[in-house]
Amino acid sequence: MTTGTTGTTDTAGNTAEATATTAFPTATARPIRPHGRLRRTALASLVAAAVVFPISAAASPDVPAPAPAAFAADATPQTRYTANRANLAEAARMAQDADRTGRASKLRTMEAVEAVEAAGAAQFLTFDGRGKGRAVEVFGELETADRVTVLVPGSDTTLDTYERFRAGAVALQQRLQIEHPRSAVVAWLGYDTPGTVSTTVLTADRADEAAAELAPFLHRLREMAAPGARLSLLCHSYGSVVCARTTTGPGVGDIVLFGSPGTGAGSVRELPTGARVWAGRGTDDWIAKVPHVQLGAIGFGVDPVDPAFGARAFAAGAAGHSDYLKPGTESLDSLAAIVLGTTPDPEATHA
User: Fold this and answer.
1) Half-sphere exposure of 14 (CA within 13 A, CB side)
2) Residue-wise over 166-198: b if at least 16 C-beta within 10 A, else e?
3) CB-based contact 187:136 (threshold 8 Å)
4) Distance in angstroms (rounded) separating the CA atoms of residues 186 and 154
């Protein structure tokens, strides 16, 4: 879940909620009981809570692409960047040959230096162009960075919608560089995100799978960065469910949950981390209207900005659901301050 300015879910929660309700039609022959209506409303709202991109931006699972490059455990970032750029170029060629021009165009944009808005070539630690795709991209000089931020996206983030996710990473890196040149941002599309309108978006199954991938990645990432580098996890919408299930080591200092539908945990104390946990929500984020309920395995329970959850609060200003990483916003300034450790941190600051 990243920044975006178009589509039904980027600007208005009521539109997203209307889309979500169509995913659970009610049989007209059966009378609607109040309890059933409440349950359907909760489920539909939870669908809306994970929406970021328009349904029209759905991935293309049948696009051909080469197998991802294989690396030794001690492969350097530069080795990975070079091999993955070649793999990305081949994936773009194969998509074009298969007349999948939309995917081919998006891959060429990912490959282009000007799209990265930084000197040098695109830097992918991981790239897999098959199906929805996976990509882990670095912005900044990872090997000299002592502040490393990992962005974890939510539903419907795929190679077909990757440009929006990348834009948020670029904006954060540019903001961090103003105060701390030795910083790097990692855009981590390292899991198969759930679909916007699907049963998978209502449960933590995809989040559990992602957490199993994210935890060892964080360990390897710290070894690639400068000695003693401090990591932060910034987790948007369904990505906050992923982060809440990720076991982190002492290298992760902060976990930030924003635009969150809940985590499935009742409080910060239940999370498998010793990091400081922050939560924030913009005043224009439609997710505030989503009921934070949990019915068995469906739903994510307590709102992370509820004082009972125990997270530290940060100012998100007037951010909409997809606006937290937009340049010039109060939310971006707050997120940068958390990463850099310049946010006032009283012992008990609650949302």
Assistant:
1) 0
2) bbbbbbbbbbbbeebebbbbbbbbbbbbbbbbe
3) yes
4) 15
Q: How many residues does the chain have?
A: 351
Question: What HEC string does 115-164 produce?
Answer: HHCCCCCCCEEEEECCCCCEEEEEECCHHHCCEEEEEECCCCCCCCCHHH
Return the percent helix, strand and coil in the chain, to nearest 5: 40, 15, 45
Closest CA to 281 of 316, 235, 246: 316
Separation of alpha carbons 252 and 232, rounded Å: 6
- Tell me which residue of 160, 258, 152 sits closest to 207, measured CA to CA: 152
Q: What are the beta bridge partners of residue 31?
A: none
Q: Taking a C-beta distance cutoff of 8 angstroms, is the pair 235, 242 a contact?
A: yes
Confidence of residue 60 (pLDDT cuts 50, 70, 90): low
Give pLDDT tens digits for 115-156: 445 456 899 999 999 999 999 999 999 999 999 999 999 888
Q: What is the largest CA-CA distance in the chain?
A: 65
